[in-house]
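Form 7-S
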Amino acid sequence: MNRIRLLAQHVANQIAAGEVVERPASVVRELVENALDADAQRVTVAVQKGGRSVIRVTDDGWGMSRDDALLALERHATSKITKADDLARITSLGFRGEAIPSIASVSRFTLVSRERGALGGTKIEMAGGKILAVADEGAAEGTVVEVRNLFFNLPARRKFLRSEQTETAHIEHIVTLCALAHPNVAFRLQVDDRERFNLAPSTELRQRLRELYGAELSGQVVPVGGSDIPVATRSGQECPSHIQITGFIGKPGISRADRSQQHIFVNGRPVENKGINYALREGYHTALMRGQFPVTFLFVEIDPALVDVNIHPAKREVRFRDEYAVRQAVIDAVRAALEPKGAIRPIQATTRSESFGGSTLPGAIPFGAETEPGRAPTELLPSADIQTEQDGAWRVLGVVGQLYVLAESPDGLVMIDQHAAHERVLFERMLKELEAASAPSQKLLLPVTLELDARDADFLRANLKTLHTLGVGLSEFGDKTFLVDALPPYFAVENLSQTMRRIVDELRQTGEQIHTRRLSEDKIATTVCRHAVKARDPLRGDELRALLQQLHQCDLPYTCPHGRPTMIQISYAELEKKFGRKV
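Output:
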């Protein structure tokens, strides 16, 4: 008795639909991507009851002739590739030829299309993958696809759909991503006959952001890149093709508790990629609090031959030929966007010889020094006696709550957390000392033995030079055993084995060319937190001005090493609104 047999065509189509069509939003994504591939300049999406009842996508693209429309309903029929070699250089959003037949096999499906320049169009009606009628139709140039009763012939799949509100939210998210990726295309979304948005074509991504997310969020992001970034690969050779990183990212302090507003596009395709996610965190590093995710609208443009989009049925994930090169390009672009020079206007100190955090000012209380309980510090200047600085500079007004420095800037009112600000100053000072020379190292009284598994031991052996530069005295003591006899002063000896394993993991994530300071940052941040000026430590006027001056000179003055904001600004426009001077 034969046990192996061919599946019926409609069963094979339903299995394929299970991979391509997960929910109504999947249908919307596939149809909108087809419209964009057809050079549509206007796309309208209309859904009812979360896409269960009706999904209609209308475009003004190339359209199809009668023969092409019929052929598009066959599996693996596509106009986007012609041979296997084309898979190595995909430039379109769709390419497999599975979407239309898969959708048609699990719905009541109607397609109306008229080719550009043709006198008339074609209408095709299907149900469950079977053609019911083909007729000539008067239609506008472009294509209209209507999908009704999704999963009507697969009740088990239909039961797994979520509520109408949830499915509608997923559809709106998909259309939003497509609108972000193609701001030059007009998009309209209708939900249950009510218009959610109607976006005109735009030449500026920020304008599209403003229309989709509001003026507040669009004002909280900074531009990224905009020019080609030559990137070195692991071997040190220049990447064979330039990688262009553009878009917008949230300012320091603007983040979310999840990745719901972390959007990544590769060659116009919204994707997921763990390497780019890691690169974003690495680019922000101390500008991002632990457990937070940056608001991101990041666009990666790369030679299609260097990216594989054919690794996931829903085309959500991509793989790069040189992951390290792309990751490093994103890191560099994010850091360049977050660390602009001259972002804060200088605060003029009373004398150029004052040194905050270094030598003590004459007659001043040393920062971090303890004061006796109930004893008031001497010679503390009242805010009214602090002289006004020159036009265009900041003016220190005083201290609120013995913690927050109040200052006036050319743009409004600024409140600075003196502890967070001093942490940032000390943090960057220690990092610069590490860059100027190899990290300091202290000999241990008793060397510590580390026993690792074979994989970690091989990796550690290959990266001994990096660890030596970091200040870790490490030597082989057997096949899988190492001896640690020296550590940087900011490393704790307790639980050293776990610390070394964490270092191995970080090296694997960032690559062998990691800068030594990256592995030191967590330890340095903990150290400077202990030494920074504390809340209620009394500071005098000249000390406050010196603190703000040195904060201005930092590469990333907006956050402390733990990602908390160092300052909050209230613009004059906001103040005028609060006082009713402006509407």
